[in-house]
Structures are given as C-alpha cells and as structure tokens.
C-alpha cells in the first residue's frame, strides 16, 4: 500500500477554504496548473471528487466537508509539534534525570542542586550514579542524561561540553597530623606515608612529577580508586591524601588541608551531554541549575 503524501492535507485545507483552484494557487504560491494537478492527486487519493463545478464556481462534496472539519485541528496539532517549545511549566513537569558524577560531586554540590530543582520543579527527581570510568556509552545510549568530569582526549568528540569551574589538587591530613603544623616543605611532604588515588590502580599522580623534578620521591603506602576512600583513610590514620579542592569540599570537613609544596596543573571540571538533548528545554533548564549551583559553592 502506497503511503499518502501528507503535504496533500495542507493543499486540501487551502482548496476547501478558498473554494477555487486559482485562489488556492495564489495562497500556496503555485501556478494554477500545478494546483490543478494537486487537486487531481487528492481526488485519486481520497476516491472522491471533493470539489465539483456549480455554475462558475466549485462547491465541496459531503466527503470534502467532513474532511475539512477534521483537517484544521490535525494541521494545528502538527504545526504545534514542529514548533519550538515556547513555554515550559516547571511546576507541573514530572521527569527523572540521571546524573553521572565522580566521587565528591554529590557530597559537595548535591544538596544545593536537589534544593534548587525541588523549589523550581517539585515533580522532577534526580538520580545520581557513580562514574567508574570515562566511557561515554551511557550518554550515547541515553541511560545517563548529564555527566560531570574532566574532558580528556578519550572523551567522545560528539558530546556537548560546558565548563563549570576550575579546580586544583590539595594535600589533606587528619587534624593534629604533623603536617598540620609549620611549613610543608617538599622534603617533609615526601617523607610521609601517602595514599594514591587511581581508578586504574597506578601508583603515580601529578604530584609525583613535581617531586621528581626536585629529586624527591614520596612513599606510597596504599592505592585506592576514589577520593572519598582516600579521605576516609587519611582521616583515621597518619597517611596523606592529594585530592581536588572544590570537588571534595564536603568530604574534607574537620581535616587539615594545605597547598602542595610542588606545582601541579589546575584542571577544568565540565558537564557533558549528548547532542540529542541539546535543544530539550527541560535539559537546558537542568544544565542551568547545575551551572548556577557550581558557581555559587566555592
């Protein structure tokens, strides 16, 4: 069965409104002959004459009258579907957004983000899931709506990216640790026992490059996969952790933080999403909430 040309609906609506081939042709900016051919196609498609001669004009058949009553609402609905969303009612919107974040993001920014979303859109819920790797598949497949993290060479090139804030690495020890008193020199820092954070299980971090330039090497006692684990160990032992400053603000409460005695590169934390959500009004609103909350919490 041949699929009907839905463009014929618009032509039929204009023909019936004008009651003339010439008038419909002018309105649709077609030639009279092209409009006549369109009417012939409509007749063939519907199996009805639609417009018949009555004196010097055309009058609609009963089938045409019945169709005209239905075409108007159909065309209005189709136009509304294709038109950009002009208004989004946050108070009545119901939606679940899944956010994929590294350790520390939820602890630092989660409460403020939930409060902002709940105030503006009570029917919206946020689901936070862990980010064990840099794989972009969840964003591509749609199981994750928004992700935060550091953009690297392996990040999928088609993803949309927007910077949220700059961050740097700090040293962190428990309250009363020897490094909480006096100047933290490269030598004092390297002599302590250290926790290395690596999802791949490596025993090297950016701080090791700075120490190596001074001929120093720190003693890595243990390797963990995340910042929260590193800080929990440092809080209950004499070990030293190196973690992002803003990303772990909530996790470091009650501990002593200090600037590293060697230079390490700053980095940018961004949010990432798939292009198919770029123009979604609700997703744009969510992105604005994340951006504002991250900008407010220092």
What characteristics describe this protein?
298 residues; alpha/beta; Arc Repressor Mutant, subunit A; D-Maltodextrin-Binding Protein, domain 2; five-stranded mixed β-sheet; three-stranded antiparallel β-sheet; 10 helices; 39% helix; 22% strand
Model description:
With 298 residues, the protein is α/β, with parallel strands linked by helices. The chain has three domains: 7-82, Arc Repressor Mutant, subunit A (Orthogonal Bundle), CATH 1.10.10; 95-149 and 276-296, D-Maltodextrin-Binding Protein, domain 2; 169-265, 3-Layer(aba) Sandwich (D-Maltodextrin-Binding Protein, domain 2), CATH 3.40.190. 39% of the residues lie in helices and 22% in strands. It is built from ten helices and twelve strands. The strands form four sheets. It has a five-stranded mixed beta sheet with strand order 4-3-5-12-6, with helices on one face. The chain has a three-stranded antiparallel beta sheet with strand order 10-7-11, with helices on one face. A hairpin with a 2-residue loop joins strand 1 (51-54) and strand 2. Helix 1 (7-18) packs across helix 2, helix 1 (7-18) packs across helix 3 (32-46) and helix 1 (7-18) packs across helix 4 (62-82). It is rod-shaped and about 105 Å long. 26% of the residues are buried. The model has no long low-confidence stretch (mean pLDDT 90).
CATH architecture of the largest domain: 3-Layer(aba) Sandwich
Uncertain residue segments: none
Count of helical stretches: 10
Number of strands: 12
End-to-end Cα distance, whole Å, is 63 Å
| Assigned CATH class of the largest domain | Alpha Beta
Structural class: alpha/beta
Looking at the structure, the CATH topology of the largest domain is D-Maltodextrin-Binding Protein, domain 2
Give the strand order, joined by hyphens, for the main sheet.
Answer: 4-3-5-12-6
Q: Which homologous superfamily in CATH is the superfamily of the largest domain?
A: Periplasmic binding protein-like II
Radius of gyration: 32 Å
What share of residues are in beta strands?
Answer: 15-25%
Describe the biggest sheet? 5 strands, mixed
Assign a percent range to the helix content: 25-40%
Overall tally of domains:
3
């Amino acid at each position: 069965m041949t699929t009907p040309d839905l463009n014929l609906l618009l032509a039929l609506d204009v023909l019936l409104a004008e009651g003339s081939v010439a008038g419909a042709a002018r309105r649709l900016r077609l030639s009279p002959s092209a409009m006549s051919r369109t009417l012939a196609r409509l007749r063939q498609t519907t199996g009805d004459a639609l417009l018949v001669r009555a004196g010097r004009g055309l009058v609609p058949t009963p089938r045409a009258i019945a169709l005209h009553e239905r075409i108007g609402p159909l065309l209005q609905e189709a136009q509304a579907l294709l038109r950009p969303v002009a208004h989004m009612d946050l108070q009545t919107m119901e939606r679940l957004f899944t956010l994929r974040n590294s350790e520390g993001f939820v602890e630092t920014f989660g409460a403020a983000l939930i409060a902002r979303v709940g105030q503006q859109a009570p029917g919206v819920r946020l689901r936070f899931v862990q980010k064990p790797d840099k794989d972009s598949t969840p964003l591509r497949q749609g199981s994750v709506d928004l992700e935060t993290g550091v953009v690297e060479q392996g990040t999928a090139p088609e993803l949309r990216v927007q910077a949220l804030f700059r961050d740097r690495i700090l040293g962190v020890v428990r309250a009363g640790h020897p490094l909480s008193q006096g100047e933290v020199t490269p030598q004092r820092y390297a002599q302590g026992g250290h926790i290395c954070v690596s999802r791949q299980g490596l025993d090297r971090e950016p701080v090791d490059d700075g120490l190596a330039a001074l001929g120093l090497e720190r003693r890595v006692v243990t390797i963990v996969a995340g910042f929260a684990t590193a800080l929990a160990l440092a809080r209950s032992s004499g070990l030293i952790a190196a973690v992002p400053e803003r990303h772990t603000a909530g996790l470091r409460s009650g501990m002593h933080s200090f600037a590293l005695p060697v230079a390490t590169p700053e980095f940018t934390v961004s949010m990432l999403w798939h292009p198919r959500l770029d123009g979604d009004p609700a997703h744009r609103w969510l992105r604005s909430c994340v951006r504002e909350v991250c900008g407010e919490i220092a």
